[in-house]
Amino acid sequence: MKPVNSHKSAASLIIATLLLGVFAVQSSEAASSTPPVTPAACALEDTLNALLQIKDSDLQGKERDTKELEARKNVLRETMRCSVIESDALKSTLASFDLKNEEKDQLLQTKFLGDLEAAKFYFLSASSSIESINTLDGIKRQAEEMLGWRSMFYLPAIQKMSEFVLVTETRQATSIAKTRYDKIFATLSAFRLTESPDIKKLLSDSDTLIRESDELNTRAHEIILNTDYVFETSTLSSATSSDDEAIRLPFNFGSSTAMSAASSSATSTASSTTTTEGTQILSLVKDSLGKIQSTYNNYLNLSKLVKKLIGF
Question: Which of 4, 20, 37, 47 can bridge 74 by disulfide, Cβ–Cβ 3.0-4.6 Å?
């Protein structure tokens, strides 16, 4: 009876380690994901619908203008509020990364956090400026200026930050997968199960997948650390402190024509590279995550195979 108990105790240890290698990472991934801005948190669609209802109504004259002015203000207020929610969520994710051993990543993290602070300052300042506007023409101009700033500075910056987050989280997922692999391999080796042909193949395949994932991550990482790519459009912090009247805060960008021309120029010179590099990053990350998923499928198959080999 004693050998049987010892045998089952060893088997339980192996199985527990294999399962930990799968489920511990699932918990980590769940903890690291940032919840999206939900409709309950951001009611922009409701304010837009309210504006459309007024525009489609039979209201006339001063009553129509008054209601439309307030509805347009509500749309801008909610746009700013939703933008603050979005930037705060991204800031929280960026700040959560422990990058003390990676100097360039840490510098980029600091830059992005500063940009998000600048963006929040703009959104709050722009939102407060809405209250002093009392004409439809005025609120329309304000909307054009605000949306122009979002298009010219905020959205390109958010794209790069999101890519940084995606690459960082994928690198972390690959590192976790490698750590689990090492633990699984060590446990199986301790019980001399690594010489089983099927187990050996699954381990070899997993090791290859992890190395390939790491290579893909390295290529994506090189892109996000490329200073030409990161700084090819004006940063949010520079956009909030420039002496150029077209982009100066708190909320007076100069004429709508100047903003439109500046936005058009920035878009035409940067969008091609941004689109190409951004697409490449997403492709590399997708392939890397696919290999990590295949690795965990191997871990599950290893667990099943060990159970079969030891008679569980």
Answer: 47
pLDDT, tens digit, 9 for 90 and up, residues 247-273: 222 222 223 333 333 334 444 444 555
Spell out the residues 6+ positions from residue 270 whose beta carbon is closer than 8 angstroms to its own. Answer: 156, 232, 233
Give me 71's structure tokens: 């509805």
Cβ atoms of 253 and 145 closer than 8 Å: yes
Query: Hey, what are 40's tokens?
Result: 């309950």
Looking at residue 101, its pLDDT comes to 86
Phi, psi of 250 (to 5 degrees): -75, -40
Place of tokens 């080796």: 189
pTM attached to this predicted model: 0.75
Alpha helices in the chain (DSSP H): 2-32, 44-55, 61-95, 103-130, 136-149, 155-190, 197-224, 227-230, 236-239, 256-309
Other Cβ atoms less than 10 A from the Cβ of 224: the count is 21
Mean pLDDT of the chain, nearest integer: 79
> How far is residue 135's CA from residue 138's CA, in Å, rounded to a whole number?
5
